[in-house]
Amino acid sequence: MCEALSTTYGRAQAYFFGLQADGSAWLLAEDGVVRRRFVARGEPGDELLTIGEPLELEVSRLADEDPEEWKSVRFDLAPEIAAAYSVDPLRLGTSTEFTGQCLVARTPY
Q1: Which letter, b or e, does each residue of 7-24 get, where b requires 16 or more Cβ atoms within 10 Å of its Cβ?
Q2: How much is the average pLDDT of 86-105?
Q3: CA separation, residue 14 to residues 68, 89, 101 (Å)
Q4: Hey, which of 37, 39, 45, 60 would disulfide with 51, CB 3.0 to 4.6 Å?
Q5: What is the sign, positive or negative, of the torsion defined by CA atoms of 76, 45, 12, 19?
Q6: Long-range contact pairs involving 81-88 (C-beta distance under 8 Å, separation at least 24)
């Protein structure tokens, strides 16, 4: 879905963030190609879902964290990734500023 949307709009992203320690996931696509997909649910095989090179924010956060701490940090990173590469989903509202076309789908908490 993100690949198709990014073909039309140039960029498309999808994020998952579980407020109850359910984990985080992000998918960023540009011009029809997935640039990065990362999943941290604490489930076996999470690493098999990873595509692409780590984003700059992931690299900088990993450099700041102990490797063991990174396991817990990545569980909460989706909102920070979203804010850095798109819009902050936890502060999304009628006053949210953006450039270009913005298409947002929200799911219930």
Answers
A1: eeeeebbbbebeeeeebb
A2: 79
A3: 26, 11, 16
A4: 37
A5: negative
A6: 81/15, 81/24, 81/26, 81/55, 81/57, 82/13, 82/15, 82/26, 84/55, 84/57, 85/13, 85/28, 85/55, 85/57, 86/13
Residue-wise pLDDT tens digits, 3-48: 888 999 888 899 888 877 788 999 999 999 999 999 998 889 998 9
Structure tokens at 80: 């920070």
Confidence band, pLDDT 50/70/90 cuts, at residue 50? very high
Angle between helices 56-64 and 78-85 (to 10 degrees): 140
Three-state helix/strand/coil letters over the chain: CHHHHHHHHCEEEEEEEECCCCEEEEEEEECCEEEEEEEECCCCCHHHHCECCCCHHHHHHHHHCCHHHHHHHHHHCHHHHHHHHCCCHHHCCCCCCCCCCCCCCCCCC
